Amino acid sequence: MNSNYPIMLRLEGKRVVVIGGGRVAERKVTGLLGTGSLITVISPQATDELKGLAGSGLIEWLERSFSKEDIEGAFLIFAATNDNVLNQSIRMAASEQQLVTIADDPEGSDFHVPSHIQRGRLSIAVSTGGASPTLARKIREQLEHQFDNQFEEYLEFLFSARQRILKEVKDPSRKGKILTAIASEEFLKSPNREADLSRLLQE
């Protein structure tokens, strides 16, 4: 049985703590950049990338060992050290309301970070439930080719077009038809989507 529940989290303004300063921690922090979360890294040592992020003010780096007070008020906790005993102690220090992921213990984690691609507003996540991260990566790479950079601009168009349609079109049936039309391959490849949308609204 797969008990995982897929969800998209809004992290803006929320505190996220990453314990560890190696490559695994670096990957976790990189994935969090741009979410608006308040990222704190706790580790006596850190990679050059993490040091650079701390130096530029994008994250906070506490250059010391972990203590249980470090995760007070944290929304998400990443136990990303290479010490299994330490990782488990981090898990034990967390409250029942806090979500913890453990780098070397997926079964003991509250959540997993799936392999994903981001194209502006479009986010596609792939998870194999821990069965094969390698397969998840391969599927992600296939999706990266299928959903290239043009989708970033297209999603911005869809967002603004939807607001306009919801405001200007009152008939539910006609509204549904127009929303379906703008999500078509024809609109994706159109050189002038705004003009095409205006024609639809005038029909």
Largest sheet: 5 strands, parallel
Gap from first CA to last CA = 50 Å
User: Helix coverage percent of residues?
Assistant: 40-55%
Note the total helix count.
8
| Strand order within the widest beta sheet | 3-2-1-4-5
What order do the helices and strands follow? EHEHEEHEEEHHHHH
Overall morphology: elongated
Q: Beta-sheet strand percentage?
A: 15-25%
Q: From the alpha carbons, calculate the radius of gyration and give it in angstroms.
A: 21 Å
Task: Compute the number of strand runs.
Answer: 7
Average predicted confidence as pLDDT: 94
Which regions contain 5 or more consecutive residues with pLDDT less than 50? none
The computed structural class is alpha/beta
What does this structure look like?
The protein is an alpha/beta fold and 203 residues long. Helix content is 43%, strand content 15%. β2, α2 (48-55) and β3 (60-62) form a beta-alpha-beta unit.
